[in-house]
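Lab notebook, design round three. We kept the backbone fixed and only want residue identities now. Task for the bench partner: fill in a sequence for the structure below.
Input structure tokens:
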């Protein structure tokens, strides 16, 4: 009997978790082959990248070899880059080959969107991959190593574009790390200026206002200057042009970190899968509209709370829960059971770190947490993800303390 082929593309939180859960659920009697495609032979913890970007965590600490996570007798890993989705032909084009499938799981993740402002693509440094974190860290240290105030008579200015979730967690890590980096490169901390530009009138506009205020006060006390209600209009190699209430200003900058926009992988909108602004409004069972053999999960999927016009924010937590439902539904389908599970997000809350020892967040029953308590809870959440995808051995090897 010909085996059914399940193809998972992408090994971020959603993709790797689906593979891990499938290999536990599938039995020999299910007559199934599982393939996992990823452009790297490792998974990395996206939610840790801000730590890599300032040098408090090494690449090796954030990377997890895929071979350590999958049962290679059940899952075939293919290291390659997806170039096109041909869902009408039930094929996926890779850089080196073409794969067909019976069932497809699209978990291609997000891209940092730098296309909307002149100069962003050329001069801004985003943070969406391990390589980007490495580049940002190298650029930060290069600027500090080359700084000479007596030669320029101006401060070394670091501009952070975006005061949302990603911008704030990066800022928290940056201001905690800067004193050590300044000492390393013999730079006076007072000569390093950090400016955060946010077009909305508040920090973390999608978060609870009290928590956003806490984060802003925390960062301001450590030297961050916020420009709220201010939009980035143009980026050049040594400056950023911004506008507030019709007033245009040019800020001299040594480095621009961009965190103000992400989008689903562009391969989605280039395919025949129906999309809205690049994301797929999936059915209740996580399948793509019009394609009963295609599941879309993680950052590429738009899932809406009841009576809401805005989808849930894409997080590692929602990706992990989608992976469980996706894996369970795939097992049902291959066994000719069409009574599929409906995805319902159980939101345990969200925590944003502010460096190693502080954080803010909302947990169950909308309880707000601050400071050391929130920081400990964030480490517990991170460690739980490790346990979910790699068990006790991975937790002991990579855990946060």
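Proposed sequence:
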């Amino acid at each position: 009997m010909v085996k059914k082929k399940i193809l998972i593309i992408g090994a971020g939180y959603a993709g790797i978790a689906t593979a891990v859960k499938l290999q536990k659920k599938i039995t020999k009697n299910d007559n199934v082959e599982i393939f996992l495609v990823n452009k790297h032979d490792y998974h990395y913890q996206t939610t840790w990248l801000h730590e890599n970007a300032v040098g408090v965590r090494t690449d090796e600490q954030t990377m997890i070899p895929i071979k350590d996570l999958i049962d290679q007798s059940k899952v075939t890993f293919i290291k390659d880059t997806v170039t096109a989705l041909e869902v009408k032909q039930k094929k996926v084009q890779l850089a080196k080959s073409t794969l067909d499938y019976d069932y497809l799981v699209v978990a291609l993740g997000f891209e940092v969107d730098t296309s909307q402002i002149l100069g962003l693509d050329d001069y801004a440094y985003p943070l969406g991959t391990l390589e980007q974190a490495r580049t940002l860290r190298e650029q930060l240290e290069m600027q500090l190593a080359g700084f000479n105030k007596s030669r320029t008579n101006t401060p070394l200015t670091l501009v952070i574009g975006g005061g949302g979730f990603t911008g704030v967690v990066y800022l928290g890590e940056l201001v905690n790390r800067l004193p050590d980096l300044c000492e390393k490169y013999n730079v006076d901390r007072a000569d390093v200026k950090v400016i955060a530009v946010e077009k909305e009138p508040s920090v973390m506009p999608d978060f609870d206002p009290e928590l956003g205020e806490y984060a802003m006060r925390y960062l301001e006390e450590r030297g961050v200057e916020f420009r709220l209600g201010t939009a980035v209009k143009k980026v050049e190699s040594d400056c950023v042009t911004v506008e507030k209430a019709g007033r245009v200003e040019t800020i001299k900058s040594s480095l621009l970190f961009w965190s103000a926009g992400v989008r689903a992988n562009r391969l989605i909108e280039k395919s025949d899968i129906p999309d809205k602004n690049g994301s797929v409004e999936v059915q209740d069972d996580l399948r793509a509209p019009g394609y009963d053999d295609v599941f879309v999960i993680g950052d590429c999927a738009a899932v809406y709370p009841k009576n809401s016009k805005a989808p849930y924010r894409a997080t590692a937590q929602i990706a992990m829960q989608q992976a469980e439902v996706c894996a369970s539904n795939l097992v049902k389908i291959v066994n000719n059971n069409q009574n599929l599970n409906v995805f319902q997000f159980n939101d345990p809350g969200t925590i944003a770190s502010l460096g190693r020892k502080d954080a803010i967040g909302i947990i169950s029953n909308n309880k707000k947490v601050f400071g050391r308590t929130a920081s400990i809870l964030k480490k517990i959440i991170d460690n739980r993800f490790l346990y979910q995808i790699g068990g006790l051995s991975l937790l002991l090897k990579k855990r946060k303390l």
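Keep this in mind before ordering anything: The chain is about 30% helix and 30% strand.
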